[in-house]
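Expect chain and fold; see below:
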Amino acid sequence: MIAAVLRHVGRRLAAGVLVLWGAATLTFVALHLVPGDQADAILGPSLTATPQLRAQVIADYGLDRPVVVQYLDYLGSLLTGDLGRSYQRDMPVERLLADQVLPTMQLAVSAALAGLALAMIAVVVTAASGRVGRTAATVLDLVVASVPNFWLGLVLLTLFSFRFPIFPSIGASGGLGLVLPTLTLALPLGATLAQVMRQELERADRAPFALSVRARGAGELRLVLAHTLRHAITPAVTLSAWIVGSLIGGTVLVENIFARPGIGRLLVGAVVSKDIPVVTTVVLLSAVTFVLINTVVDLLYPVIDPRLRAERAR
């Protein structure tokens, strides 16, 4: 059993390394295909750069070497843990990211927990409401899940910061500054999870064990909370990769709408200024997060569903 688990972990780690290599390579290629000269991006908007200074920058950064050589040097630096220096801020990328990771993590974690909590509440409340109630809840979930994050963020900002000044409109100071950005990400996420969980809950509700629980005199609420809800939560684990991807993409918009510090705002500025070391590091950080989450979830499946343990042991 242990050997089978180790083999499985080894395969997942190998696949993760390929994903990271692919992400790094695609980022390098995409940024080199963006119009504009990289030396100009390094020099910034200054109009007083002399030809000598420009030539010095090209030589210092190795921009006069073939693209293949630049690519190999770039991979070599990543393998040694050298993330480079930001072109625009002239500081190590790891130090630049150190101040931005925590606000983004706070927003992503709070949105994931809030989205899951909202989905569970919606599923439990509508579990015993009959077919009409569940249909109405499904339609509402579909509408909320279809709302773009940026539009929802602007509506919440207009209502609860400008019309009714309950929450701050910008910044990340204190817990109140986290409420509206969290809701902006959590509402569509929770609506999508609720749709999937409700379908699984209805499937479990028709299973033989549910009939047995009812035969013992258990009410619908007890059936849901003690038995069928665990089956409804399983799809949320399956969708964890999608959840991570949606939160990573959503924070880029939300951090700009609410003027929050974070990796999202940093990434937008780095792409505009063609700050390759910063863009590359943010993309790789997202890829590492994606790989780790998928690996952990894959290892948790046998814990959630014991039937998979026998399959892994073969």
The chain is about 80% helix and 0% strand. The two ends are 8 Å apart (CA to CA). Residues 1-88+273-314 form one domain.
